[in-house]
Specification:
With 344 residues, this protein is of the alpha+beta class. The protein has helices at 2-10, 41-44, 102-108, 171-179, 234-251, 311-321, 327-330; strands at 78-85, 126-133, 152-157, 161-166, 214-217, 222-227, 257-258, 268-273, 285-290, 297-303, 331-336, 341-342.
């Protein structure tokens, strides 16, 4: 089985890309069928029909969730996603209420992201999804009593960019310099620019960093984000560490597992994040898939009702191939920039 997974991993060789600047027209909303291809035993083999039979990790016996609701296309849309490093795996109920934090400065400050697609008045779509995360701080805190003396790191998606040295007072600079000019979930994917074709638009100029904020590319090829906020729902706090353990078990033989401090190129970064909505469908798992090694996120596949025995096929088919196993049960939504599709 491990060799079978290695063969899949070896097929994904990244291609280089360069930026082009145009912001999109409205991305197409898909019809009632799914954005992402469903696994097919005729193509993917009989393994796609079966959960992992070697999984020994189990949820608590009283772990009960909603099994009846329809999931697909019932998530609020978002344009960008910002993960804030806190070094913790649980937070106050609303992370914007965490005093002196970057989350508070973003959630309650006057500066707001302006990029993204205009919304109709009857929708609750977000220009930016804000998540606290267990990513470690980029620097050793200088003074635990002064939040502005504790520089942190944020991860901006879909651009797959880390920005270091962020403090609450620098949030307006972060938004204006990095978030507002960045790509969104509905921007066309970066395309290769041919120097021999003068009609191809040139790449947009690089964003000029502020004096203090420091951007760098995220080295991971894929991201798995697990809601772990037990202050919102105990099931999230129970499920996240168990799923991480099981994902690690399947990723290590492939050479794809990356822990919080492993910045080797490629691989899969696994982060705990704060509440994303729908905890009654725990566990919620968001999979970001990159377009090439240095490219931006091409897809985000948002799954729910994930159990440890589902992890093997999520790695094999969703992470590595962009397919969904049993979408009627698991798929909440997401986007596919290569086909200009979103689920909202």
């Amino acid at each position: 089985m491990a060799q079978h997974l290695r063969n899949f991993a070896a097929r994904f060789t990244p291609a280089s890309s360069r930026r082009v600047s145009p912001e999109p027209d409205n991305a197409k909303q898909p019809p009632a069928d799914r954005i992402f291809p469903e696994t097919d035993p005729a193509i993917d083999g009989e393994d796609c029909l079966h959960d992992c039979d070697s999984c020994t990790v189990k949820y608590p016996s009283r772990f009960s969730i909603d099994e009846e609701d329809q999931l697909y296309a019932r998530v609020d849309g978002w344009d960008t996603h910002l993960l804030v490093a806190t070094g913790k795996d649980d937070w106050v109920r609303d992370v914007a209420d965490e005093k002196g934090s970057i989350m508070e400065a973003i959630g309650k400050g006057e500066a707001k992201p302006t990029n993204g697609t205009p919304r109709s008045s009857n929708r609750r779509d977000k220009k930016m999804m804000l998540s606290a995360s267990n990513m470690p701080f980029s620097n050793t805190p200088q003074s635990a009593s002064d939040p502005d003396a504790i520089p942190s790191t944020v991860l901006l998606l879909p651009s797959f960019t880390y920005i270091d040295n962020v403090t609450p007072t620098l949030v307006p600079d972060l938004i204006s310099t990095f978030i507002n000019p960045s790509s969104t979930n509905m921007s066309p994917l970066n395309s290769t620019v041919s120097e021999s074709n003068p009609s191809t638009p040139p790449p947009s100029p690089d964003i000029t960093p502020s004096i203090s904020l420091s951007p760098r590319p995220c080295p991971h090829r894929y991201l798995i984000l697990l809601c772990s906020q037990r202050t919102r729902d105990a099931r999230c706090g129970q499920s996240a560490p168990l799923l991480r353990r099981e994902f690690e078990r399947h990723l290590r033989p492939l050479g794809l597992y990356r822990d919080l401090y492993d910045e080797r190129p490629g691989g899969v970064g696994i982060y705990f994040i704060s509440h994303v909505g729908g905890h009654r469908y725990s566990a919620n798992v968001m999979v970001y898939r990159r377009h090439g090694d240095g490219g931006e996120a091409a897809q985000c596949i948002w799954l729910a009702r994930v159990r440890p025995e589902n992890c093997e096929n999520i790695v094999r088919y969703t992470v590595l191939q962009g397919k969904v196993v049993n979408p009627e049960r698991h798929l909440r939504g997401g986007f596919d920039r290569s086909r200009r599709l979103v689920s909202w």
